[in-house]
Automatic annotation (TrEMBL):
Gene3D superfamilies: Winged helix-like DNA-binding domain superfamily/Winged helix DNA-binding domain. Residues 21-194 form the Plasmid replication protein C N-terminal domain. It comes from Microvirga tunisiensis. It comes from the Bacteria. InterPro entries: RepC_N (IPR005090), WH-like_DNA-bd_sf (IPR036388). This is Winged helix-turn-helix transcriptional regulator. It holds the Pfam family RP-C.
Amino acid sequence: MGLPKGFPMKASPRLSTAGSRKVSPALHQAQQIARKYSEIEPVSKQVAVTVARLAATPMRLTSADKDMLNFLFARSKSIDWTDLSSPPIVWPSNREICIETGLSLATVKRCLRRLAERGLITFCDSADGKRHGHRCPETKRILRAYGINLAPIAVRLAELKELHRAAHEEKVFSKQYRREITRARRSIRMTIDAGLEYQLEGPWVEFLEALSLITDGMRTASMDLAELREIYSALVSLKERVDNAFLRASHQHNMNPQRGSK
DNA sequence: CAAATCCCTACAAAGTTCCT
DNA sequence: AGGAACTTTGTAGGGATTTG
């Protein structure tokens, strides 16, 4: 990906982007989302904090990311969230963030980048690359600020809540599916074993192979709901075939019981 | 022009997760 | 338990812009 190693970046110094933040589609989109801040219903800082925390896990944020979010929230004032005339921007320097969060510089940069990629923050860069801002001395409202913009969290509030709800639901369903998969697997296995043990007529060895085909290398812990559902339905149809075969064979066995009884 | 900021990538070390 | 594979963190090296 990107340019080959050692690619000369000096064709036109004015156009060179070396040394400044690269824009990815995700970063760009977060920027667009942040723009809608003035059109939304105000969201209290407390609600924003809570929803961001809930969304952190499904968004696969690291603990450093979460520390960073907490720090950024701590830097914003309540009025920044109720006053829609200016987005909730905070302007700590990276150095300050390092000192106050205990994260290294590299981690600070990476966390900010990740939060922006996830669409939780965007950057309002000043011309000099430094972060700074001004508040009205009386009202404490932000008049002008360059730094880290938390507006996407407010704009995406409903979406983030839904993300958390869906993740929670998936967790519950996954648990259910894993339980049912284990039940079906054991039931199939026991039926096959019985068929073999009583030497009933039936393709038990093939069934066994079919079962391992479905369940071998299965790591239910790291599977998503769709994969679990697929495995479950494969097991259900196998179970039906196995049960039918067993039923037929045991019926024959009862008609003709001298063979293979123990 | 140096200082103060910010940004980037590459690579190695350390930590974590998953599989056998 | 041990090892492979992946993720996260820290370090190093390099660049841009503005200000005094």
